[in-house]
Structure prediction request, 535 residues.
Amino acid sequence: MQSQPSYAPAGGAPVWNSQPYAQQYSGPSGPPPAQFSQQSQYPPNSGKWGEEGNDHTGHAEPQRFKPKKKWNDIPFLIFYILTVAGFATVSGLALYSWVKNDGGGGGLGGSRTGNKGILNSSTVYLLLLTTACSMVLTLLYMILLRAFPKPILHVSLILTPIGALAVAIYYFYVKYYSGAIIFVVFVILFAFVYLGYRKRVPMAAMFLNIVLDIAKHHKMGVYGTAIIAIIVQAGVGIWFVFTIVATYLRWGNAACQAGSAANPTSNTSCTNATLIGLIIFEVFAYLWMSQVIANVTLATLAGGPFGSWYYFGPRGQGMPPHPTRSSFVRASTLSLGSIAFGSLIVTLLQLIRMLLNWASQNAAEDGNPVVAILACCAACFVGCIEGLVEYFNKYAYIEIALYGKPYIKAAKDTWSLITDRGVDAIINDTIVALAMTWGSFFIGLLCVLFAYVYLRATKPAYNSDGSYTPAILVYAWFVGFQVAQSLTAAIDAGVSTIFVGLAEHPEILQQRAPALFNLIAQDYPRVVHGIHGTV
Prediction:
């Protein structure tokens, strides 16, 4: 067996200490390796990780970091634009009717006025406050993550099997045995995952701190982008809420009966089929828009502050001016069709899973256990595929952002990257992603608690019997989770971008930050062997 080359520094392995990560490892003091002497555009970094340097010498652009200035996947770009336009048209018609009816009555706080048969403005105000609550909680979570990275990563891993066990126990309690058995299997799988991952937590925490240090020195590029994404996601979510409420008001049965009584000669179509079709379309459009917003944000961060830092070094040492703005322009124009393509795949899987869950619940209520079990198994299968596609797409979007590839080409290269790296090479990235996801999940739960307290305190007229409480709480969690994911995804994007950079060109990190490179190589030597060759 061929032995792996040694990457240990001359003075021994770096020693952990209490200093910030950005101060533990300085740049190299010697020339680059001989086999990479032709890549003189990557000069030694005299600063620290993520810090701005004092050397303002310009450098040539690395060959691999030249996004092609070409419009990609144009058919999907057109389809996406038409979908957004269709959603806007339906929304405009519904909101026009909603405004004419004074929003169905109701208001902020304890107002008990309004139509008792349909949702009204009280719901909108509640969900507006829930959105604001989720934004505040997400910012607090980022502060905690910065202060306590290792404990949060450990807790995230432990909560995965515990959460699955809690769901399994609940399903056994309500005698939903098919779902309970599936989650018992998840508990066993997650337990083995934790046993295998726990030794990698220190390494994942190191990567997390590196990314947080980069973000610290590129606040506007990282956190500014994430906050703008939250605001845009919140705005789209609010728009969706208004549209759903207004659609129910205009085309729902209660609205139909009221309209028919007031104007018997009216030919307005407000059947259940019309309402269901419109709601499915609105949910589809919202999921797709939400996916595209999140993925444009990911591409902006990958091709902006994180990608530029990996390939060029800190600001002032070769990093191009305004990398975040340039990356956003590419992601929202030339690469928008590719991003919409990948997002559409996930959106369709999400919609299918939602419909299967709905079918399973209806079959169980109608006394058809076989149909309920089959639908539940199908929903779980689709959910697994959805998760795999989302994880795969994340790296595809980074390839798109860094190199300007169309989606199919980026997907093929991503497949080669992942199959070459192996499972162990992406464990660190997965651990960080779990921490981000669990944080978003609990923020969603806190938003549910806020919404429940608000409903109990205000007692809106339409929910006097509590029939709308479950639906409102589910949507409150959905809003909180989506908003939190938009912000935490900024850090996850940094970890993933560094992984892609290591897979494509590990020699760049070896030259700019040899201590970090050596530390990675000691534990995971295959990670720092580029897929196009070795260092």
Summary: The two ends are 19 Å apart (CA to CA). Residues 272-312 form the longest helix (41 residues). Residues 1-63, 107-114 have pLDDT under 50 and may be disordered.
